[in-house]
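My hope is that you will study the protein record below before we discuss the fold together.
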Amino acid sequence: MRDLLAYRIMGDGVNYLTPSATIAGEFARANLLGDGVPLPVRVNGVVAAKVTQGAAQVAFIALGLGWGLGGLVPSLEPWARAARWFCAAAALGAGLLWLTARSRRVRELAELGRGVPGWRGWVSRMPADLLALWAEHPWRVLASVAAFGAGYAWNTGETWLIARSLGVPVDWATALRIEVLSNVVDALLFMVPAKAGTQEAGKTLVFGVLGLSPRAGLAFGLVRHARELIWAAAGLAAYGTRIRPETLAEPRSATI
């Protein structure tokens, strides 16, 4: 469990500080799991975690927009109504997907992929394997989504603490709204490495939309950005330390 936590932090550091649209860290995590685990299992596990993380972020944003912003900002009320409809449709879609995934056809697709030699085989059956995971272990998938969702919600406490430290008297509901809208900005601008400029500009915009001081939003963005950079740098440094012994162990060509 400790190794998995370390791999998670290392992957976050690679994702945050490299211009890879948060993809490079997933390859790093699959590589860190080592050759003791078959490559298809490693990759499918990392992909499954990425999918549940994305689902958790979408759910957090949708729930926050639907019920956290409803009636607060009149201009956002249509988006809040759309988010409530989205939550209902997503719940219905997840149920239908679960029923579909339990069908024999999914297993037939997985077996068809296994008949293809090499890496093309497990890549072609990856969607079927993910559907099979949802069909056979739905509670594990939901637990993963809930854990990631709790992580996004946990940042509300950090938002409240930073805002209070900057002299902005926000309550917990306002801190939640700040975090929800910040996630919207982050999701739209996820391709920007290290959130260069988007963190500060996004928080300035969010604070302005909520009727708070844009200057306080800029200061908030700077503090949050500093914290993220320190965390990501620690993860990237740990990743460099991890792969260095393997690099040094590689045999060198003989010199004549």
Observations:
- Residues 247-256 have pLDDT under 50 and may be disordered.
- Residues 14 and 114 are 32 Å apart (CA to CA).
